């Protein structure tokens, strides 16, 4: 393959290549250029409205699901794209919150997404507040059927959990990692007994650069789309400089490269899951 990696975790998976809306007005003679795994792809919709993708003269496998375009670089996906049932549930607001470029390995971005311990320090006034700094014990497991990581029973006190909240409360979280570069957060909603879903879908430009796409499937009858988007971009804007100033741009998977704390159960599981997959893309080689 002409891509800048031979890691089957990337080549044989469905990788997000941007929102479906980006192909509006395109054609084979006027395609949209998209960067993926170090190469520039040409994407467009044909006369029947079906998305198409090529690299040079080679056609690549592409599909439209969950409001995004997904490309399998090898054309031989190891498994179907993950399910996202909340995307089609009646009554949920579906909001594409846009993509933000981040100059770091996508694995770093997913690990940060799973980390509750940084809430009071990086997202003070929103997702956390000193002195509410303790990460309560939670459960993490890998689903034997889907091989997805699930972190459950996660709770954290937050002064403003979403655009719809204006006061502090203990928020219930569930995390789900579907792919090395795709994860989901389910959190307490403004609708009693329901959970909002927030998808973090990373488009890998290369080993040290991604575009982070955020998708909401939420219950919110008061906020405008602009307010929902602004809230998510504010949170990610606080994370971006932290991520880009890591000592190592790529994820170190060796055991002693960085020391985990008691609240890092999700991170430890994620790194072990990556090692067991033989992950090499975006990974820092052991010294």
From TrEMBL:
The alphabetized UniProt keywords are: Methyltransferase, Oxidoreductase, Transferase
Task: List the Pfam families.
Answer: VanA_C
Q: Which example biological process does GO assign this protein?
A: methylation
Q: Note whether Disulfide bond occurs among the keywords.
A: no
> Does the UniProt entry include the keyword Membrane?
no
Q: Which residues form the Vanillate O-demethylase oxygenase-like C-terminal catalytic domain?
A: 108-276
Q: Which GO terms describe its molecular function?
A: methyltransferase activity; oxidoreductase activity
Q: In terms of domain of life, where is this protein from?
A: Bacteria
- Its protein name is Putative methylxanthine N7-demethylase NdmC
**The organism of origin for this protein:** Variovorax paradoxus
């Amino acid at each position: 393959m002409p891509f800048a990696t031979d890691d089957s975790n990337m080549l044989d998976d469905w990788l997000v290549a941007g929102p479906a809306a980006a192909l509006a007005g395109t054609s084979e003679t006027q395609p949209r250029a998209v960067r993926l795994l170090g190469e520039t792809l040409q994407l467009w919709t044909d006369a029947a409205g079906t998305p198409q993708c090529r690299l040079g003269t080679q056609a690549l496998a592409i599909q439209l699901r969950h409001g995004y375009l997904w490309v399998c670089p090898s054309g031989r996906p190891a498994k179907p794209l993950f399910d996202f049932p909340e995307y089609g549930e009646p009554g949920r607001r579906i909001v594409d919150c846009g993509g933000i470029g981040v100059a770091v390995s996508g694995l770093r971005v997913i690990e940060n997404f799973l980390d509750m311990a940084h809430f009071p320090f990086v997202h003070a006034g929103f997702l956390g507040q000193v002195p509410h700094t303790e990460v309560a014990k939670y459960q993490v497991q890998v689903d034997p059927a889907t091989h997805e990581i699930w972190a459950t029973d996660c709770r954290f006190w937050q002064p403003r959990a979403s655009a719809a909240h204006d006061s502090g409360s203990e928020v219930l979280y569930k995390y789900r990692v579907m792919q090395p570069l795709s994860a989901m957060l389910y959190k307490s909603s403004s609708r009693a007994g329901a959970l909002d879903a927030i998808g973090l879908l990373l488009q890998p430009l290369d080993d040290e650069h991604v575009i982070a796409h955020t998708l909401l499937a939420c219950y919110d009858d008061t906020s405008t789309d602009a307010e929902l988007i602004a809230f998510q971009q504010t949170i990610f804007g606080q994370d971006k400089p932290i991520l880009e100033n890591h000592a190592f741009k790529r994820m170190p998977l060796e055991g002693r490269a960085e020391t985990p704390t008691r609240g890092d159960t999700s991170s430890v599981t994620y790194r072990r899951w990556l090692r067991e997959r033989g992950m090499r893309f975006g990974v820092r080689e052991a010294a």
